[in-house]
Amino acid sequence: MTPREFFYLVSNMRETQRNYFKNRDQQTLRAARKLENEVDAEIMRVKQILARDN
After folding, report:
1. Are the C-beta atoms of 9 and 38 separated by less than 8 Å?
2. Which domain holds residue 28?
3. What's CA 38's distance to the chain center, in Å?
């Protein structure tokens, strides 16, 4: 994932989180959790790359 793609993923995640807290809709909560998992997976992927490089 490029830095730009990561930026848009995190931006989308935060917007979805804000929408959830505004509306407390279960569908929005599921979408927010899915995006959070994608962000977490990307962070883990980059951490592993950085650990290999050190």
Report:
1. yes
2. 3-53
3. 5
